[in-house]
Specification:
This protein is α/β, with parallel strands linked by helices. It is built from 16 helices and nine strands. The C terminus is likely disordered.
Length: 526
């Protein structure tokens, strides 16, 4: 039997002819290609090279040094604060480019900013810095115990392991340069210090020699001329050898000690906060934020598919169950609000259960009620964005959600890599990315005692602004579609392009409207 006269219920008649059309194969492959390329470019482009994009990394320097008497090249001493010199050199190094936002603070000010997560590191110069530095020269001459001058770098482990490593690597070059500059002063003071040590030994030898000469002169005076002449010869010999003896006895700085003095400052890194167990090395707030994003995204997509299926806008399929339900004709804004409000209702117990499970597996959850409210708000905002983009863009809206919420959201969150170490593009879009605001508000609640200045206020404001924008886009876009294209599911002015092609090929004059489905089946089909 020829294809022209094939039975209506034949396999080919039921399938139609999409497989012979190139676009049937090309469109899904192009979609996969686009997602792969765009995702790689955004995700790896934003996170793969933090050192290259380093800019305005907030670091504080605190000088507590009390100063000390420092030997000068002319042999004199001068009251100096080597900590101030160290800060000056560190600031000069930071000013060479815009990588570091260096803040010269008191320790109290630095503690406040560390407590709000505003600093990634604080460099503290102790009050004994100058004394330890000067003592290092003296210890090198006397072989005594001398403490090597050190600075302590307090890092914020709640910024994550990468943030801590970046902070240390940002501080280290400045400390090294400052150390070498201080080392130049110490190296210049070596010769005067050695000369002072020589003079001291020489003075002691001369005083001892003078006492011996006086004793010898008194003894020679009791003898004859021969004895006196011998005494004079002895005195001349002692006078000639005392300087040589002083050179041999006076201490000098060894070559090993000179190397230490050339780069004297030791940098010690310590965490400002001790992380609690269950914080995932400081990344727990980010992981929880990702969970909220994923649940809001995937939950909204699932809700949209299920509700569209039940309203007859698309086939309802679950496992082997497949059915076309009768179409419910609703204005698009009404459908958008109905779906979003359904998600909001479900998001409340979901947020509570997520927080309970997180606490149950060991994650510390202080300010539990606030974390519950933030989770509820975060998922509701993400849902509004997803449903608005789907409402306006249809199936393409899901790809837009993936790009906007995930591929653009992860690099701009400021969690995996600090915002100061990502490309300018991602720093620019961070204020309009929900994940960034979810993370800052959740982190403030979990780690910074819900301090409004630790990102809680800015996170809440950002989420509420994006919620309003998403609702406006979903409602206004749906209203415009209804006005110019007809109600979704109703008889509108537009025509389904596939049906137009099929009708044109068969010569049919009757056209179905854009949203028409085939007649609803009365039963379920496997």
């Amino acid at each position: 039997m020829s294809p022209k006269h094939a039975p209506a219920n034949s396999f080919r008649a039921r399938l139609g002819k999409p497989f012979a059309q190139p676009l049937f194969w090309l469109l899904p492959m192009l979609a996969i290609l686009a997602v792969g390329v765009v995702g790689t470019a955004l995700y790896l482009g934003g996170l793969s090279n933090p050192e290259k994009h380093f800019k305005d990394f907030p670091i504080a320097v605190i000088n507590q040094d009390k100063g000390a008497e420092v030997a000068q090249a002319d042999g004199k001493t001068k009251e100096q604060n080597l900590g101030t010199d160290l800060v000056s050199e560190f600031a000069d190094k930071a000013a060479e480019d815009d990588k570091i936002d260096l803040r010269q603070l008191t320790w109290d000010e630095a503690q406040e900013q560390l407590g709000r997560g505003e600093l990634y590191a604080a460099v503290v110069i102790p009050d004994s810095f100058s004394e330890d530095t000067v003592g290092l020269v003296e210890g090198s001459l006397t072989n005594g115990n001398a403490a090597r001058p050190q600075v302590t770098v307090y890092t914020d482990p709640q910024a994550g392991s990468l943030g801590t490593r970046l902070a240390t690597s940002a501080v280290e070059p400045g400390v090294q340069q400052a150390s070498k500059k201080v080392g130049e002063q110490l190296t210049a003071s070596i010769e005067p210090a050695e000369q002072q040590a020589y003079n001291k030994v020489l003075q002691q030898l001369q005083e001892s020699q003078q006492a011996q000469q006086q004793q010898l002169s008194r003894s020679a005076a009791q003898g004859g001329p021969a004895v006196q002449q011998f005494a004079q010869q002895v005195q001349q010999a002692q006078q000639a050898s005392v300087e040589q003896i002083a050179k041999e006895l006076s201490p000098t700085v060894s070559s090993v000690a000179k190397d230490t003095l050339a780069d004297p400052v030791q940098m010690v890194s310590e965490p400002y906060h001790d992380l609690e167990e269950g914080t995932a090395l400081g990344m727990g707030a980010f992981y929880y934020s990702i969970l909220l994003l994923v649940v809001g995204f995937s939950g909204s997509v699932a809700l949209n598919l299920l509700m569209d299926g039940r309203m007859g806008m698309s086939p309802f399929e679950m496992g082997p169950f497949f059915k076309d339900y009768p179409r419910a004709v609703l204005p698009r804004p009404v459908g958008f609000l109905m779906k979003w409000l359904t998600f909001v209702v479900a998001a409340a117990p979901t947020s509570a259960l997520m927080m309970t499970v997180a606490s149950g597996v060991g994650m510390p959850v202080p300010n539990g009620f606030l974390v519950f409210l933030l989770g509820w708000l975060a998922m509701s905002v993400v849902s509004a964005i997803v449903l608005a983009l789907i409402s306006v863009g249809g199936s393409v809206g899901m790809l837009l959600c993936l790009i906007y919420l995930v591929f653009m959201g992860l690099p701009s969150a400021g969690a995996v890599v600090p915002l100061q170490a990502v490309p300018e593009f991602f720093r620019g879009i961070a204020p309009v990315e929900p994940l960034h605001h979810i993370f800052t508000s959740i982190r403030a609640s979990l780690y910074f005692d819900a301090d409004p200045q630790a990102g809680l206020t800015s996170g809440l404001v950002g989420l509420f602004v994006m919620l309003v924008v998403a609702l406006v886009v979903g409602l206004l876009g749906g209203w415009l579609y209804d006005r110019f294209a007809g109600l979704r599911g109703g008889d509108g002015p537009g025509k389904h392009s596939a049906e137009e092609d099929a009708h044109a090929a068969s010569g049919e004059r009757h056209h179905r409207k854009s949203a028409d489905n085939p007649p609803a089946h009365k039963g379920a089909h496997a």
